[in-house]
## 1
Amino acid sequence: MLYINVQKSEAMEHVITINNNQLSFTPGQTILDVAADNNIYIPTLCHLKHASPTKTCRVCVVEMQGEDDLIEACATPAENGMIIHSESHRVIQERKQIIATLLNTGNHNCSIRNLDPQDWTQFQMNVHQADQGNPLCPVWGDCELQDLAYMYQVQTEAVDAVPCQYETERANPFIIRDFSRCILCGRCIKACNEIQVNNAIEFGYEGVDAKIIAGNDVTLKESECVFCGECLQACPVGALVPEQPYRHDRFIDTVKTRTTCSYCGVGCQMDIYAQNNRIVKIDGADDDLAPNYGSLCVKGRFGYDFVGSEHRLTTPMLRKNGELEPVSWDEAINFVATRFNEIKDQYGPDTMGVLTSARITNEDNYMSQKFARGVLKTNNVDHCARL
Amino acid sequence: MTNTIADIETADVIIVTGSNTTENHPVLSSFMKRATKRGAKLYVIEPRKIKLTEYATKWLRQEPGRDISWINGMMRVILKEDLHDKAFIEKRTENFEALKEAVEPYTPEFVESITGIKADDLIEVAREFAKADAATLCYCMGITQHICGTDNVKSLANLSMLCGHLGKPGGGVNPLRGQNNVQGACDMGGLPNVFTAYQKVDDDKARNSYEQAWDITGLSGTPGLPVTEMIDKAYKGEFKSLFIIGENPLVSDPDLNHARKAMEKLELMVVQDIFLTETAQIADVVLPSLCFAEKNGTFTNSERRIQRVRKAVEPPEGPWEDWKIITAIASKMGVPMDYEGPEQIFEEIRQVTPSYRGVTWERIEHLGIHWPCPETSHEGTPILHTMQFTRGKGLFHAISHVIPAETPDEEYPYILTTGRILYHYHTGTMTMKTSGLNMLAPECFVEISSNDAQKLNLEDGSMVDVSSRRGTIQAKVEVSPKAVDGTVFIPFHFASAAANTLTNAKLDPTAKIPEFKVCAIKLEQPATA
Ligand code: SF4
Ligand code: SF4
């Protein structure tokens, strides 16, 4: 009995109320953490999981009973007895305001800004003009700001976009930096400095000149950047986009497959996105999933062109008159089997060897050694891992 | 690895040696870098001033190939200052007295004279390592690719055991595996002396159970040859055929001229790969296979976690899966093998592999499991040796240092050390198909210090001839702050200027790993510059 009482009173000390739900929490958790654990949605833009609060966007504001100002859920630790409203009228008004401001200060030419359903043509024209003839934003349909605008039904006034003073950077092969769409949330900075700890980018300049800068405002290529793409994966809008032009095909079905990176021994979990049987993007899997918790490096994220490469071998080949010539599988298998048997009979199994691989799967490796031991009857099997 | 990757972030002290972690295991290096942000001490013990030294509490610079000396030196400091974990040593280890005796000569001053590491630095790191609640040792090929590679590894184990840092979170001895499935290839018996899960081929019991499981008789009980010895035998004409699956030894092997001649003497060379690699080009038969994104299966990562590989795209028409090619050849040779697919093969693996027995594809659908996992109710083993070592008690090894097989002399006055760079992988067959990676790292380079460049009158970006006793290559000079006077670094990825033309094929007598990390070279202006 006593035991139960202690349990109860201890648990009682860590309870907050969100939207009339009494929720227990672990000390150290923020309001946002508690909400997330309990499937209560609080929108965020600058917040990055596993990093310290950035506190730039304020979109996560909530109302706390007894507190005059709205507070940021991402940066406020849960305290016993707090009573929180995450979707009150006041909260929603504030969020609408924040979203509208973000939309208006950048080149967000999705159908959100200036949307006038009566004048579609004019809208299209504006879009083209603002984008120097380019079609819609490359992440249209895959943008957290756009999602929020829809969710909170933000209709911005017909405000002209402020032309961006910084030119889009395309000086490296992987990451496009389009400053005109940057909302300065700083999530990329957190990703770079706190998750990957590459310390390549930071906030630069003040006020209307504010910009995410690499080094002392050089291109990524000239900076400490190692092209891990963590920032790209973190960017909630279309400011950091991959150079790979897949987004032009954004209306084509994309198939996502979870798999393991095939480069180094970390074995990062990744999501491969394919369109028309071509890999168009690779992202780190789930940020709560070991071993990489959502991170990848440059090889894992961008080094996939070999998969569909035109240089791939497609047919077995046999050396005839000094040249490798294409043959059928039947002929190749027959030849190899016959020759292996002949050599085995003539010289003995221990003059034969199999080099298996540190790159192929366990299943394939198992078959290689089974082949050496069970078919050739030799233990001459090794791989090049030591090399 | 004895511990997990995530575990590194929880260590109080991290020693990294023989690993250029930010370039070779970039995502793993983040765990180290984040640990330092939290206040952990990071010591990097490396011949080159690699990127990670910028995050380090201290960088200790040893002459290449002199690792046993500094490790013994640290242990001596720890013993002299009475900082060793007596309870752990008493309960969990044996042969402690021999160790004590072996490290006695390694005074900090003696170590400094061999390794170049300052006596004070050695003492500081030894103290911090011993006093930490949990301290981890991470290493890679810079430790293993030496004639004394096995002894290097044993020495690190000595150091960790001495301080009781094994078998607990944040501790351990952690080899970082270079290639994605090195761990798996070893676990699966892709080694000359063992079946799966390191069951010895000369153990009658293991062999019998294999014969039964496979329904094949007459398995050989004689351990086979490691790759380096197969090549040597082939060179002498005593080896007749090689079946090479997914490897490119003609760029990755040491002393390439020798390896090429050896392969040319084979009666039959079959290469199975996804590209026409340098090795495939001289094969008698080339068999096209599938890449990781086109097939299902499993990889086992550095932390012994068995993870799923899934088909993300349809393969091109023509190539077959590796296992399918192998079973087709086997069946044709009169040993019928019939599998529906990789999952059925995995089921067979489980039957014959005690440490994998509890893992099923279903169980690792979302999250991989660390072996050993002996049964399906077992959660896997993230940290090894928590209760006892594989052999029961941990054995201290009394080890003395040796000098690299080849040291600089008048004719070849520089030390060459080889390795990898961030933007490429192994022999480049995969990464060099991505133009962006080639743009960032287009070609081979010879990394030297500015002092050496000046001395040799070499300009950054100019070409230089690099020669060893075994061959010559030409590549671009890269004057770099990473280089230390007297030591030159060349990445081995590039076939057109293959660093392994220069390297020494001298082997570690136990692990048969060549000494890639040290050989003597000279640098000269190209004759036709
Ligand atoms: S790619 Fe990686 S290193 Fe470069 S800025 Fe982005 S997060 Fe930083
Ligand atoms: S993404 Fe990079 S760090 Fe991760 S497994 Fe692949 S190569 Fe290794």
Note: Chain B touches chain A through 149 residues (CB under 8 Å).
## 2
Amino acid sequence: MNIMRELGLYLGCVIPTEQYAYEMSIREVLPRFDIELTDLYGATCCGAPLRNINLFTTMYLSARNMALCEEKGIDLYAPCPICHLALTEAKKKLKENQELKEKINSKLKEEDLRYKGIIELYHTLDLLHDVIGLDEIEEKVEEPLEDITFAAHYGCNTIRPNNLDRPDDSENPQKLEELMELIGIETEDYPEKLDCCGGQVISDHNESALTKAGEKVEAVQNHGFDGMATICPWGQRMLDSKQDSSADTIGESLSLPVLYYIQLLGVAMGIDQSKLGLELNLSPVDKLEAIEGIEEVE
Amino acid sequence: MSLIDLTSMAEPDEEQQENIEETLEALKEDIPDFCYQCGKCTSGCEAFILLELEPHSIMGKSRAGFIDELVNSEEIWTCMQCFKCQERCPQDLSPVGVIFALKNLAVASGKEIPGGYQKMLQSVLGNGLIQQTKEVLNRANDTRKRDDYDLPPVPKPEDMNKVQQILMKATQEKLR
Ligand code: SF4
Ligand code: SF4
């Protein structure tokens, strides 16, 4: 695949407001695979968190963001699985229900927008694994990460529900593992692999959410993995950014390096670490000798 | 402030009431007789152990007509939205879908909803996203801002007021 492909970069809420390392690595790594990322400047929240309040609003916001991208005549890339699921659901429901689509379009008209339903949606996982493809990635690996074993964390919405076109299998996802092996990382399945990080209830059930995250990190640590790779900003936020508070909550000491897969890929491609936001991982990633030159941030 | 104050403006009560009743009816139709209370949904529920959420009992209670009790319960707000129950139900049912519908109903009936969701809604209405751009820490505990990393401006609607008005009305709409 050497044709330049243009995609609308739909970041959602959590990535552009706090998970800067994910965004930096995406902007750094993907163009090297001939992907041109176009920002969707008028975008808003995908609507997923508002499912709890009003499902119509979710549908409207998802359609609105897709319409913004359709207007540019390009497909959409949503690096957040929660956004990706909400958009996929809206796309499917609006295809099945023309009446609802018209109702939503009548609201979009107030902003001179129209949702047509011609858009394709991608997440980081299928974009890397299926669109760019393993061969193309392998060619760009310059410094494979050696002698480390990592656990995969997919994030619930990356794989479920299966009837809404998820990037990987709901019960036995393997694409992230394949992508890790491609850059030299060893990996293995583990019993807690599909466990939830608790991220969706963090505001109202803080302690339970941190317990979920802490227990998953603890399990991965006890299995002897050297670290964990994620592809979800909510998962990264719980397992990395909040690892210390999770440790306090469950009363265990946790020190597991957690990185976005795309950060690891960037490292393996020889990209300067400062461009991959590695100083922003709050878990002890500096423990990883496989990442050459990784420094303790002083 | 309840969500109704925040969103309804001059919506006539009668219409609101009709709305709620219709949703309730639709919800009843959705809660099928096919749930045979096998409990598989609850056995894998991510919120079962810590927050005592039992999706099978929500299915059971809804079918038995205890909608009002559920709408007023705290339990519907503990769901972690992992979709395992829907994925694994041998009868192809969606407990998580029923839970979303119950929450929507709670909101539409003007129930007090958990603070986190209120805040998110207010933020989306105010600036389009669930939270404002944050300052974060790096591993050395230094403060970092988005601007420190040469990233382009955060997306935002050109005319937020207009989007806000559309959203306020949208929160009064039903899916069908
Ligand atoms: S898994 Fe399905 S059939 Fe079994 S109790 Fe849950 S909803 Fe009912
Ligand atoms: S979606 Fe909610 S109810 Fe269903 S299994 Fe997950 S936490 Fe439980």
Note: The radius of gyration of chain A is 19 Å.
## 3
Amino acid sequence: MKCGYKRVISSFIDGELGGEKAVFLKEHLKECAACKEEIEVLKSIKSAFSCEPDYKVRGDFTETVIASLPERRANFREKLDWWMDEVLPLGKKLIPVPLVLTAALIFFIAFNAVTPNFITLEEVLLSNHFTLEEEIVLTDARLSDEIALELLVK
Amino acid sequence: MDNDITLIERAIEGDKSAFGDLVDKYKGKIVGAAFRFSGNYKDAEDVAQEVFLKAYLNLAKFRKEADFSTWLYRITYNTACNYVRKKKIKMTTLKDDIRYEDEFDIERNEKREIVRAALEKLPLKLKSVLVFREYESLSYKEIAGVLDCSIGTVESRISRAREKLKVLLRPYILEGEKI
Ligand SMILES: [Zn+2]
């Protein structure tokens, strides 16, 4: 067969040839004996397959398959439960440890931040929020002689 | 298909009876296909069992937009190929092995034997497309899905497979009797 329609004919007998191509092939078959014969041969081969008998799958096939399945998936729920019951409570018991450490750290940092630096008397005088006397008492400022004299005058 | 999806979802959660329903639904197809590849009934059931086990273990990987049977066929094809390679199964006589639904006459059995023997001589790539097309009645599109190739590839492989069969079966065709 020299037409080069082999592949198309194979698809054609499977009913897989698209409309336009099928029409084209049918037209061609009217005038090509070789292709007609090819179709007969392929159909003959195709029909030989349908002679295969059906057979029964063993009755206990499904049971055998189910028996072979691992418990892995079935255990997923149990594993989840195990995590909920065993691991999480353990976690709760352990929570205070990092909690205390964290609290201590926060406290330490906060304390350092809040602890006032000694301010100089000049800063006190500039701030004007407090009276000089109050600031001196509050800040435990060391007085220079000048300021001490000033206070004394007041 | 909705029903399949429900069963699959239940099976993923560990519901074995749901998976059993899926096995019941597809075992005919899968054992059948495994039989075509492995060549005998005992191996076919072993292969099919392995297919369902693999399917169970990989259910979560099944993309739900695909057809479940296509997915199973793909596993069957891969499993059967490995099985055949591993065991180097030779063509066995099917007479003692196959279980008939009804009694078939000798003539029909002979035809079956002849085609089967010819099919065994084809390379696996060509044999597989014919198995899916002729025995499992899959469309070209479905075969392309199973083998993960293009429809054009399926088309060309089927054509080449038939070309080879034609040569192998020539003596029978030339005798004038339609096989
Ligand atoms: Zn022609």
Note: Residues 121-153 of chain A form one domain.
## 4
Amino acid sequence: MSERTVPSAGRSEPPLLVAGGTLVDPVARRTRRADLLVRDGVIAAIEAGISEQLPRRGASTIHRIDATGLLVMPGFVDIHVHLREPGFEYKETIATGTRAAVAGGVTSVACMANTRPVNDSPAVTRFILERAHAAALAKVFPVGAVSLGLAGEQLAPFAGMYDSGIVAVSDDGMPVMDAELMRRALECAKMFGMPVIDHAEDRALVAGGVMHEGAVSLRLGLRGIPAAAEDVMVARDIALAGLTGGHLHVAHISSAGSVRMVRMARAAGIRITAEVSPHHLWLTDEAVTDYRTNAKMAPPLRTEDDRQALLEGLADGTIDCIATDHAPHHKDEKDVEFDCAANGVIGLETLLPLVLRLVEHGVLDLPTAIAKISSEPAAILGLPLGTLEVGRAADLAIVDPQREWTVDPSQTFSKSKNTPFEGWKMRGRAVYTMVDGRTVHEERPAGTHAKAGEAEREARP
Amino acid sequence: MLFARPHLLGLEGLTAPEIDFLLDSAESFKEVSEREIKKVPALRGRTVVNLFYEASTRTRTSFEIAAKRLSADTINLSASASSAAKGETLTDTARNLAAMRPDAIVVRHPSSGAPDLLARHVDCPIINAGDGAHEHPTQALLDLLTIRERKGRIAGLTVAIVGDVLHSRVARSNLFGLRTMGAKVRFVGPPTLVPPGFSELGAEIVWDLHEGLKDVDVVMMLRIQRERMNGRYFSSLDEYSRLYCLSADAVARAREDVIILHPGPMNRGVEISSTVADGPYSVIMDQVTNGVAVRMAVLYVLVGRRKAEAESETVDSEGGAPVALAAASPRRAATGE
Amino acid sequence: MSPTARDDATRVVLDAPQIQRALARIAHEIVERNKGVEGLGIVGIRSRGDLIARRLQHEIARLEGESVPIGAIDVTLYRDDISRGADHHLVQITEIPWEVDGRTVLLVDDVLFTGRTTRAALDALMDFGRPRAIQLAVLVDRGHRELPIRADYVGKNLPTQRAEEVLVRLSESDGVDEVAIRPAGPRIAAVPGPGGESKQTARTTRARRA
Ligand SMILES: [Zn+2]
């Protein structure tokens, strides 16, 4: 697949040495002790013992980060994020969303098109990129709409949006019900090497449902959404991907049936990739008990059997990557009757510890787990990101894997607080996040960081 | 103290002694309704708000009579959920109501879980008078009381619940209550209205009416909502009635001493034949009487207790009766609240 | 259930024969005062007042050869101190299966203390009709009235400290007939423990608040 060039800030700052850390290489799938030198925003060298050699090389002004006991990883790439700007700035802005991203070690995000106006034109794409540039935090890669206004009727201008910078197309949130339109989208996106990101839910089968259909929905008296609502859509779109040769990317896969079909489709040579969200990996429909609206999302949290199938799919590579589906909503959209509550949860700031938990639980080894949020998702979008390679942008997440913390919604950098993980004890946190060699987030030692975080938030208009 | 919960949101999770306590209390309250002066001063000066987002003359009246017989003041607030959706949210309403300092809120709402939401926003007892397809605990309590009176027990009975179980809060509350009290529950209806997932909640699923009524002690008919029979869940009301109308023939499959409950109002000739509705098995009038008694018991237990807790801290300084401390403390210790 | 585990300080003030004699005497007084039992009805206050009422009915029948109509009331719903008696026990059934109108009603309780239970019982009775007269019989009057109420028939006047507890136990409910006084103790410390013991405390409470 052709890789797109990503403009780099390319500032002339003094070189930076990340010394004494353990590097996690998601491509080679290994870890090793080495120093990493950043110069002009790119990774200039990766070697053991650079720190001893440096004086001889005559670099006098050099910044240094002591990464002893820390893990040095490529900055994370989250290919499913809702930044809400333009149009829903009360939920999130590009500035607050990317601030939340870098706080979680995420240095690149792909943002969905369901803004107001919808990102179905080069103008909106350019607007998003301008705002991202102004925020100067995480890199932002817009996803264009499949259909004008997400109405599911007419194709959006892929070529214009591509030239302006989109990396994929999706009607995320408003599944494309018209099979013919989906076919044409796959055909057209193929010309640009872009995937069609598929929010696979058959809206007729969703039928007003608000959670997974099963014993829990029957117990709570909530209208259920059968897993088949996802399965039939995945089945349909696999057939269309086979027909067109287009790249189908299944977003937030949630059912055991879908995982099986993706596995079979890939074996049959169909160009298909899939992502799963951390909440589908760690929660089930039981989380809805007591009508907790922060456990409401689309597709819904499913059963333990589905969850196990997702973990398996992740382990055997059927599921390529993990993406947050970060979907901020205002308190007033969640603190309502379950039926009326908005779908979605925030996820950027809890992504890393929930991925590290997979390692803890023996689902994946560390480099593979990190690959699922760096090199793999970057590859799906054809971005030269998410790797630790000399010559590549110095987008880094320097992680303290032992740092323990408790999820406190009042402490999020995101404008919204709708996390289903409130009160969870987490382990692992990005202590430095760098984009193009520039530190965009720095975690103070435990105990002081909360205050620092507050100060930063207050400083924002 | 046998009922220490702050609210009555549903029967799910209540223990058998808790349900027994409410039923025993209700039995005592029945006597009050048989007096010439059908009123006791127990909740004098207390305010009960009936907050109804769905029209339900029957349930609202029953709660209102119950509150009045306990001398509580009642305020009826009706709102259509659709108009509420445009304006004030339930959360806002809750906050406004809380400012009026009611002693209990009885709530009926088309959304499952709305009483839970309300309970998170106000600090007075919330009594669920029916939420969406979730629960209708006082209806199930009155059904349990009726069954217990007629059968002398609940444990060991087999109860068939017939009809649109999927959309029925009465069916769910009865399932939870009956199972806790040791009865067997059979759901009878077509698969569109009785999805197999209910077996995971402990119900036996039978699609055939005659088979479903075999040897049951109690038949509970659910009201069929005509608007559901729109060709999606079932072809038509006629089709439904053809298979599930409770006829004398079907009743003959049940035990000889079977009783038939119906939450009313009945669709005669649709879900129940007139012969059966007016027949000797029908205990529908008992249900109405027991409804008031059960609601009196629930209001008294939740509101009366609250009064006790609010005042018990000041007892010692008033020098009134030091027993309150002695009596209150073991109850708290025993319930862990 | 066994009687309360007795601590040393508890002192029995009436034993079974003394209780029996007191009730027999009260029965005599009732018959004498009312010149027979014509138009009389007995109502015991739950719980224990109703047991004593039944014994009085029996004693009166022995004297007069006539069974006086009997009833029982639960006054919980009439109390001004639901809060005080905070043991939120089961409201028991009230049954007075005869016309109260025009009768002389003999109200019976085990212990007369503040007078508040009697006040509640008077209110409750009035809701059942208009008795010709109401008389009050109690097994023990322990003083400390808070309302202008006095008993017409008293088994024993028992001077007590306000904080002391008077424990009435009857064979029908407690397996033994006796009245005892327990000194005021550390109230809260006295009651932890499983159901059995807290139930005991609840009973004690009922006796004391009479
Ligand atoms: Zn989506």
Note: The beta strands of chain C are 11-14, 40-45, 70-73, 104-112, 133-141, 153-157, 165-169, 178-182.
